[in-house]
Amino acid sequence: MTARSSTTAIIRESFVSMSIGAIIVALWLFTAYASLFVLPSVKEMSVYAVIAVIASRAFLHTGLFILAHDAMHGSLMPAYPKINDWAGRLVLGIYSFLSFNRMTEYHHQHHRTPAQEADPDFYPGSFWPWYFKFMRTYIRDGQGAVIFWGMSLFFYPLILIFHVPLLNVVLFWLLPQGLSSWQLFYFGTYRPHKRPPGGHTNAHRALSSEASPLLSFLSCYHFDYHWEHHQYPHLPWYKLPSVHRF
């Protein structure tokens, strides 16, 4: 491949990644507006409709983090590194007011020392202790205060100024954020890096699921193909099935 064709391929990949990312962000914004300002109060909706809105909002919220995660690896818009980082900061801020620089530093440390003592994401325990340790890592040193005040900046105006029903805010905004964190933790940290009975058998100390591409996408945007992500960290999320060992 010539230098020119290589550059063209990178620009094409950047366009595809940003186009997919724009669709995810647009759907997130649309469902956020509809669930808070268009839909009736949760009390007037059927249980099935409420569950459907919560599930779709949680899935799209997870998508925001996946886009930021790709940006941490420079694969969201590889042809334009500055725009890549700017986009990562934007979607990670929308996700939960998290620091892109800190997340990038921690995530690359995770890739250097997966499932080891120096891995900021690792904890040799069961699901809930590991989850809470994982969360504490990312809210320390003032990050927790940034998240609290950032969330408050949106929460109270929604309730007091725009008169959005409290249950709608809790179930269609706050709950999907919590569900998203559990989804990302389970499929992206706990399940792939939990020590198997016979111990890890590869340098990445990572396991991959055997789910079909459709189920893998629905579970966590192919994040369950986790060995593949560690082996090919430059690949955007939607290309992981292409290197999965079925």
Automatic annotation (TrEMBL):
What are the TM regions of this chain, as residue ranges?
A: 20-39, 45-68, 145-164
Cofactor(s) in the UniProt record: Fe(2+)
Decide whether keyword Lipid biosynthesis is in the record. no
Residue ranges of the Fatty acid desaturase domain?
146-245
The keyword Membrane appears for this protein: yes
Query: Which Gene Ontology BP annotations are present?
Result: lipid metabolic process
Family under the similarity heading? Belongs to the fatty acid desaturase type 2 family.
The protein's name in its UniProt record: Beta-carotene ketolase
- This protein's species is Leptolyngbya foveolarum
Instruction: Give the source lineage, highest ranks first.
Output: Bacteria, Bacillati, Cyanobacteriota, Cyanophyceae, Leptolyngbyales
